[in-house]
Amino acid sequence: MKLSDWRAACALPVQEKDLLIESVCGIDKLHIVSDGASVLLSDQMLEKLAHLQARRLRGEPLQYVLGFAYFLGRRFRVCPGVLIPRPDTEFLVAEAVAWIRRKSKPHSRVLDLCTGSGCVGISIIKELEQDRSAGVELVMSDVSEQALAVAKENCAHLDGRCEKISFIKSDYFASLPSLPFDVIVSNPPYIKTDDLAGLACEVRDHEPRIALDGGADGLMAYRKIAAGILQFLKEDGHLFLEVGFDEAEQVKALFEPKFSQIDIVRDLNGFGRVLHLYNA
Questions:
Q1: What is the reported pLDDT for 235?
Q2: N or C: which terminal CB in the chain sees fewer CB atoms within 10 Å?
Q3: Could you list the residue ranges forming a coiled coil in this record (predicted)?
Q4: 246: number of CA atoms within 13 Å, CB side?
Q5: Given this model, what pLDDT does residue 161 score?
Q6: Terminal C-alpha separation, the chain
Q7: Separation between Cα atoms, residue 78 and residue 94, nearest integer Å
């Protein structure tokens, strides 16, 4: 079967079918269009394409079907059981990186709490790679063994300096060594339990509930972080939290007894999406 014939028959949107072709056949978008009529697909390719198309048509997220997602322009492995990186979370990385670059310390111990695919912590390392004065020791923590396995894979693929990165299975702070950190970043679950049913089926039916469900009021994870934060953050340390678009003030109130300074950082739409917390 010619590539052009399969492409014409495929029921998926053009962008999605071309991503499947690129993944299976190793042919880029330009040559898919220009050479499709002359490329013959092997039986193995056809079988693989049919399998991936069927998964996508059943509503499985495209990122799971492909096995990767892009975050800050970098490709990260993802699979069912691991939260798919979101563009909103790039804002969290940008805020943490900006502060690390501004500070005077030559070295930072950073904890990526609820690391998932590892996209936040690894992106911090990569963004700072050109800053020779900004050395980072990174600890990545998650309660999910599957998430940690994927984070390790992404680290090995993207970073290559794994001697500076460690991975710890922990339910928030429960199993972490009490060595204080200069920076803690976290994108914890923050969706209200009752709101899960209203999510798009791709999210609701396929992404890990443990990475989405923030409890009855969406604040369960933040309470757990607030309870242990001062034991694990240096006195002059900084905490960066992603929050739901309507949760910034509520989360701020939870942490006010712990921090003298809490900045709500707003996104381009004016929503408070990151809290920057520290003691001045």
A1: 96
A2: C
A3: none
A4: 4
A5: 56
A6: 67
A7: 22
How far is Cα 9 from Cα 263, in angstroms, rounded to an integer?
52
DSSP conformation letters of 13-79: -HHHHHHHHHHHH---HHHHHHHTTTPBPPHHHHHHHHHHHHHHHTT--HHHHHTEEEETTEEEE--
pLDDT at 131: 72
Check: CB of residue 259 under 8 Å from CB of residue 227: no
CA distance 208 to 144: 10
Cβ partners under 8 Å of residue 45, min gap 6: 24, 25
Helix (H) or strand (E) holding 91: helix 90-102
How far apart are alpha carbons 135 and 82 in whole angstroms? 28
Residue 160 CA to residue 164 CA, distance in Å, equals 10
- Residue bearing tokens 């330009």: 30
Query: From the CB of residue 228, how many other CB atoms can be counted at a distance below 10 Å?
Result: 14
In this structure, what token pair is assigned to residue 209?
């509930």
String of DSSP letters for 133-202: T-EEEEEEEES-HHHHHHHHHHHHHHTS-GGGEEEEE-STTTTS----EEEEEE----B-GGGGGGS-HH
- What pTM, to 2 d.p., does this model score? 0.94
The angle at the Cα of 243, spanning 98 to 112, to the nearest 5 degrees, equals 55
pLDDT at site 159: 59
For the chain of 280 residues, list the mean pLDDT of each consecutive stretch of 10: 95 96 93 89 97 98 98 97 98 95 81 98 89 79 98 82 82 94 98 98 97 98 98 97 98 98 96 97
Residue at token pair 């739409």:
269
Q: Which two tokens stand for residue 85?
A: 């990186």
pLDDT of residue 133: 57
